[in-house]
Amino acid sequence: LRPLQSRLLVALVGLICFINSYDGDFVFDDSEAIINNKDLNPATPLSSIWKNDFWGSHLSSNSSHKSYRPLTVLTFRLNYLLAGGLHPAGFHVLNIGLHCIISALMVDVLEILLAGPACDGRAKGLARAPRASLLAALFFAAHPVHTESVAGIVGRADLLCALFFQLSFLTYCRAFQGGDRSDRFSVSWIAVSLLLCPVAMLCKEQGITVLGVSAAFDILIVCNLNVYELTRNLLFGRKSPDVSVPRSSIPDLCRAFAVLSRESTVAYAASDCVCVFKQVRKGLLARLALLLVSGSLLLYVRWRIMGTGPPAFTDVDNPASFAETIFLRIVNYNYYYSLNAWLLLCPWWLCFDWSMGCVPLIKSAGDWRVVWPLLLWACFIGLIRQALCSPDSTKRRTLAFGVVLLVVPFLPASNLFFRVGFVIAERVLYLSTAGYCLILAYAVAHCCCRWRRHKKLLRAATLALLAMNVARCALRSQQWRSEQSLFASALSVCPLNAKVHYNVGKNLADRGSQDAAIQYYREAVRLHPKYVHAMNNLGNILKERNELQKAEELLSTAVHIQPDFAAAWMNLGIVQNSLKKFDEAEQSYWNAIKFRKKYPDCYYNLGRLYADLNRHVDALNAWRNATMLKPDHSLAWNNMVILLDNTGNLAQAELMGKEALKILPKDHTIMFSLANVLGKQEKYKESEGFFLNALKINPNAASCHGNLAVLYHRWGKLDLAKKHYELSLKLDPNAPGTKENYNMLKRKLEQHPRPAA
């Protein structure tokens, strides 16, 4: 295929794999990163994107995950603006488009790595893309492990990071086009590459790893250094004959160096190496120093941005990092690596979450699972040996870069430098998959060359593997279309994962299936007895079913396990209020506010408690606090109007209602309450206007028709009163007081019939 055709083919395969997720819902982490993230709202100042983390929390907050990805959040905000709200289709379409572009660009990246030094300018005019790079790119486009990054909107961070990672790497390669020596390069293109690196980091922190890949490209391809030969000759060389070193190019230097090294001594090998490096260091060492300084500066800036230090994760997020001994930590980390490798090799068992018992810890050296890390390292060492020691330069280069692309982008998620907040995350393998696909494509090509008799069979097997991956991608992206199918799919993969049962239960509760939800919440608590969020949600359901004693017991256990769990304290207060334990309820509410200073819902419930105790001033103050923290808190505004109305403060109630409608101009409940206040003040015309506006918004509100009828009744507009009484009774035949008022009106009309026209 011609270059354009090959890229279009790869993009098309990527599109086919994930197109069925375009009309999916917001699922799993999308609710926190998008639906509940105020930074997406156009009313929020744009500057807040640069102050908050990926989830909308301020970076200085102790609860912040410190994931600083403002450019990704900016694309979410653009989606919001273009769609006119939170409509998931636009978000999904952009994700799919990004994956297609990245897959097409992967042809260029892999072509450079596979073609070697010839790509530096001389391959510029090639009419055909190498088949190996096309095959590797096809494997990449259709790898099922990408589903989380593409079908899950939160995966936008990985996609944007990968895109700018590729652009940074390609511009670094561009710096050497047209030159015949490694010390001749374009400073401008390298500067552009270094500028694209922080752009990738502003999409996701993983973007900094492009500097390591660029350095490897410089050493292995631009300078064509044989690291193994260089090291061996430094350590075990013999006396060197008088051989002159050519000054034409670095590949020539390396070949001359190989001749020198075969017959040199330890004493003279070092001087020969110095001689060679004097010619390469002018360009290579300067560029490596530039990459190192840039990386160090970016890491320093990133650390300063975190403010209060790294995020605090718990043993629930990453149990291996809390293992008792360093030995067990190392063993479990390596076990996680082997599971990640298995996901690349056999991406059939995929799960949206791998925490909370999905991967039980290895607690002793006698656990049979230690075989998997040993097998992983045996394979990995064998791969590195081939990448360094093979006499075939193409094989060395291909396998070396396969290892580089496989390992370097994965390093931030490896727990080597800092603790991460997950066990396994399929999305972090997005870039590493390129290294695996490069090695896989080389293996296919090697087998075709070695077993020529079975070439057709190998081709058929390769096509079958691609077709199977495409089908698996389509199936998995279908599962990501809704939370119901996503969570249900995880039950067979991670039946011991408490979070899976919790999310299935939460989804069932949201759909009204409380009985089924209770079973899954209880299973989540059984699997993880300290799962306070499952206890909290189960307690809420039991509260709604009026099983108050059981709810109180569960919520009390939750706050005992996690004393700073503000939501559980608030819900415990609601239950205690219902049980008439007013003092305990008040203390629970204040505990919730203690641990979450800005908690408008808690102030609202505290106000309800004070209203029940007839502490009207305290109730008004609590509701006022709720509206100050959350100006659109409709219930708090409405309760203040009603309380002022009930206590006879009609003028204040009127002012409060009008103040509320300035903030919530389409809230029919506040219009209804304000209309009642105005009716009591005999401001009939103004009251009528608010009643009618409320009915325009909610025409089936029986109480609104009934109260409007009472207004007309008092006002003397008896025909209109009769009409709205009848509408109210039609909507709700048991509406309190309406039937009595209607009968009273009928008697009045019978006693004073209107004269015929």
UniProtKB/TrEMBL annotation:
Residues in domain DUF1736? 309-380
Query: Under what name is this protein listed?
Result: dolichyl-phosphate-mannose--protein mannosyltransferase
Transmembrane parts of this sequence = 153-173, 185-202, 208-228, 284-303, 370-388, 400-422, 428-445
Q: How does it sit in the membrane?
A: Multi-pass membrane protein
**Gene Ontology cellular component annotations, sorted alphabetically:** endoplasmic reticulum; membrane
On whether Repeat is a keyword of this UniProt record, the answer is yes
Q: What is its EC number?
A: 2.4.1.109
Family, as annotated: Belongs to the TMTC family.
Name the source organism: Electrophorus voltai
GO MF annotation: an example: dolichyl-phosphate-mannose-protein mannosyltransferase activity
* Biological pathway: Protein modification; protein glycosylation
* Ranges occupied by TPR repeats: 498-531, 532-565, 566-599, 600-633, 668-701, 702-735
Superkingdom is: Eukaryota
One GO biological process from the UniProt record? Answer: endoplasmic reticulum unfolded protein response
UniProt keyword list: Endoplasmic reticulum, Membrane, Repeat, Signal, TPR repeat, Transferase, Transmembrane, Transmembrane helix
